Amino acid sequence: MNLAILGFEGLGRKVYEILIAKKSLLFRNYDVNIKYIYTDNQDNSLLPGIATNDYNKIINDDNVDLIIDTLENEKAFEYIKTALYSRKHVITASSDVISNHYVELEAIAIDMQVKLLFSATVGGNMPIISSLLDVTPYNEITKIEAILDDDINNLLSFMSRDNMSFSSALESAKYSSNELELDLDGKKSSKELAILIMLAYNTTINIDEIYRYSISNISEDVILVTNLLGYKIKYMASSYLMQSRLNAMIEPVLVKSTDLLSNTENKSGFIRYYGTYTDYQIFSGKNKGYLNANSIISDITKVLSDYRQKFMPRNSYICNGIRHIKSRYLIKPKIMNDFFKSITEKNLDNIIVTSIVSGDDILNHIQEIQFYARIID
Predict the structure, then answer these.
(1) Which CATH architecture group holds 129-287+316-376?
(2) Does 178 score more than 60 pLDDT?
């Protein structure tokens, strides 16, 4: 099997290094060759004879059987689509492409009798995609809770542990990481959550319907109150399917110190889902881009096998954001008005713990809120 890797920055390079170093161990019974590396890098001395910046050269080569996409840019969708129409298998790490275009691309893959695999789109080296594909045919999944951005939650750990301000913690996090990528408004996490929702609930979803609330307005006094109450604060992607009502959100949450979610330190990601016959399934691991190489290698073995992935969502739920969620909240109001007084269970220097309120209540007063976090008890 001849393959081409699109991209040689970060993830693409890591896939290349693993294939070169471990090919004989990984594919003992197969002849797997890297025929092309698609890269715009002018210095291709490390890739003699295989580097190219001409995608048409790759796509028109009938001897190329597999395209591995690690680009994560605006070209990825058209490149993948063209590859599938050319009857080439595709492995992609693009959460943007899969979250927005999966149904269209999978229909092409089925028609062209090739495979479209995307284990690397969510969770780094956590095998969450394969798990959901395995269990959803005989389970009703009703809950997903995930920490998808390692760096933000590492930042929150700095703040909680050392009573730091947001800006001070950001500086500390920068010094501790050469690859700091903060998803402060949840935009990247929403794409990954959309893929989890698609698989778990067997449904298409409009990413714009996933509610996103930024972590950037968090302050030291919120951290102090959180610690005082015995919680830890996390920036979490979550979704709940309740009586055909789909809720999905990226928002700050407070979790008990005894909850496994609270122990995701040292830049670890965390994903758990609940199903009728699986109970809780839990995954934990690094969620950094280069670790997605493990998932890509796993998908290569599936291309070589008789594995058939023909998942096509059959439902079409409307996402309600946080509207139907009922929970307690930690809220820092801009002004303590009658509404906030009416829902206050506990007031700690004008940071309140509320009684159980609906997501609709939060949305109706969102302009009056300096910061909020949903409490998971």
Answers:
(1) 2-Layer Sandwich (3.30)
(2) no
